[in-house]
Amino acid sequence: MKIVLLKDVERLGRAGEIVKVANGFARNFLIPRGEALLATDANIAHFESRRRQHEAAAEREKKAAESLARELEKTSLTVQVRVGEEDKLFGSVTSQNVADLLKEQGREIDRRKIELEEPIRALGVYTIEIRLHPEVRASIKLWVVKE
User: Fold this and answer.
1) CATH number reported for the structural domain that contains residue 39 in this entry
2) Percent of the chain topping pLDDT 90
3) Domain extent for 9
4) Bridge-based pairing state of the strands 114-115 and 136-146
5) Is the pTM of this model over 0.85?
6) Whether residue 122 sits in one domain with residue 60
7) Do 136 and 118 meet the contact criterion of CB atoms below 8 Å apart?
């Protein structure tokens, strides 16, 4: 089935592109979520009229993400954790913990945008990537110290 993407869809395409996907994926997922339309002549013409507005909004979002990334680059977080013998952590530090620390500093970041390959289970200094926009990433320092 051919569809017109209304929004950028990761691993599929950017807004405005006409792509071919499985019928069920389009019908059950993309179209109900408002991320795509069937690629009919009328829908393509309708989308072209909205394209300029979408491009301007996308540019504003990217600039806001770049501004936030510059602020976050200066950020350093410290998390105090309980440790046992040989400095082994009780539990781990997850992306949710990092999101909560950022929220305490007044920055609301969704935990799904924080990229940790696996939870942190040792003391030390870590560089954590945050995906703010498909084209914008920020790195923050996280210090994991004993309580």
Assistant:
1) 3.40.5.10
2) 56
3) 2-64
4) unpaired
5) no
6) no
7) no
